[in-house]
Amino acid sequence: MPRSEARVSTDRPHRYAKQLAAHFGRKIESSWDEETGLGSLAFSMGTATLTAEPGALLLAVEGEAGNLENLESVVGRHLVRFGTKDELVAEWHRDSGEAGSVQRNEEDAPAHAPGGAA
Q: Residue 39 maps to which CATH number?
C-alpha cells in the first residue's frame, strides 16, 4: 500500500502526538502510548502512525494511491493548526519518489501570484 512520511521538527513531539490522537479519537479509532511514544489513527481511507522522537514527530500515512494526498492533508493540517505558535511544517515524502503535500501555517505560506487561481 502506498506510504508517505513527514518528519516535523518540534521540541514537543509527545504533546502534539497525544493531541492528534485525542482529537481524532472523538470520531475514529486512535491510540497513543506515552511510554513508547507511539500512536495510530485508523481512518476509513487509510491509517496514520505517530512516532515521537527526540526533536521531531514522525508522521506516516498509508492508504490507496488516490487517498494518500487526503491523508497527508488531514493529519498535517491538524498538526499545523495545533502547533501554530511553534510554526510547525509538515512536508510529506512518498515512498514512490513523488513529492508529497506540504502543510504550514497559512500566514507563513507563500502568496499566490497576482491574477493566479487561489
A: 3.30.310.50
